[in-house]
Amino acid sequence: MATSTLSPAQRKEVNKVAASAFAGTAMEWxxxxxxxxxxxxxxxxxxxxxxxxxxxxxxxxxxxxxxxIARPLGALIFGHIGDRVGRRxxxxxxxxxxxxATGVIGLLPTYASAGVFAALALLLLRLCQGISAxxxxxxxxxxxxxxAPESRRGIYSAIPQLGSPxxxxxxTGALTIVxxxxxxxxxxxxxxxxxxxxxxxxxxxxxxxxxxxxSPVFKALQAQQEVVKVPILSAIRHTGGRMVLGGMxxxxxxxxxxxxxxxxxxxxxxxxxxxxxTMLTATLWGALVQIAVIIVSGRIADRVGAWKVCxxxxxxxAILAFPVFMLVDSGSVLLATVGIMxxxxxxxxxxxxxxxxxxGLFPAKYRYSAMAVSYNVFGIIxxxxxxxxxxxxxxxxxxxxxxxxxxxxxxxxxxxxxxxxGSAAVRRKRAAEDAEEAALVS
Length: 442
Prior knowledge:
Layout: H1 8-41, H2 43-46, H3 53-84, H4 87-105, H5 111-114, H6 116-147, H7 153-161, H8 163-178, H9 183-190, H10 192-196, H11 198-210, H12 216-223, H13 231-270, H14 276-304, H15 306-329, H16 333-348, H17 354-359, H18 367-395, H19 401-421, H20 424-441
Helix pairs in contact: 1-3, 1-4, 1-6, 1-7, 1-8, 1-11, 1-13, 3-4, 3-6, 3-13, 3-18, 4-6, 4-11, 6-7, 6-18, 7-14, 8-14, 13-14, 13-15, 13-16, 13-18, 13-19, 14-15, 14-16, 15-16, 15-19, 18-19
């Protein structure tokens, strides 16, 4: 939808699509982030017991990373469906897989009762989560962007992104509530409740997804028989360089998040002596900051360009990486909370408009596949950031400066990718592709 103004009927449809994308993405990320938080405070004890707590943490973070390894496979599967069958069919399939996988985690036996089979079952379900997440984000974002007017793609791209901090509030909030139980109850049955909530959330998500109309852009491609047979091959052949730049630009918002949440929760409770409740509550405050930053960054992107906002967010996060860890290391609950809020807020600056940036990089014929694969191939790094952070922590004698350097490197990668994605050469190429596509579907 290239027009900058909408009729009332069109505006109603766009808002419905955006609301559905937000709700579905919130549910997906609730499931995905819940696992990340639980890997720091639950799974280490119940599924990967070891005499050395640091080793148990590494094992728990390894299954966390497995979900990210599976994400490119999900991007290929659901991207192909989205570019061949329809965007709507793909996002329905992804939400079903995620909801079922997460709910079943809440039913698993622990290592104490099932031994290594419990850990293997957890790993399998985490892989299913990863496959689902690999297809969800790209599909939800493409649906919104292909319904939205061009002049407001920044703010509309921010709406599905709100699903992540809202999911953090829901998942971390659920764990925070059940963590007030006595340890015996929490580790026996309390931790299961947030996972079992995935089942009713799935029902709500499906209801919303089935109410959404197919993308008008995809309908036009179907009508003109311009649907690509193997979209990912076409995407790599024609836009491989842009896929790399887009993945770099998305790295901080999609992956750096897990340094400031999953790793820092583990680091704060196990090494710095903060209690579990303190670290979870700090993450909740950080999620509130994220909501505000996403809205503001989306609005600014409509004025100055999404790539500029993403590049600025990378630079700001790089500057703040060491101060964030200094605040967490202070030993003060207040300062640690501020540090987590600042860290989560800074890395969210590029996260808000990244959907607008990525969707603008690729032609509609293989947009879903290109966005999903570029985002999730680089997203593999995110899965290893907590385990890399833990390894750096151990190798530096439990000092945080190595992890701060890692966060800085991730931030600078996003800055460089965003600048490349916004280059004059890329903009000229996209203008030519848009003109060619408009001629085909007119």
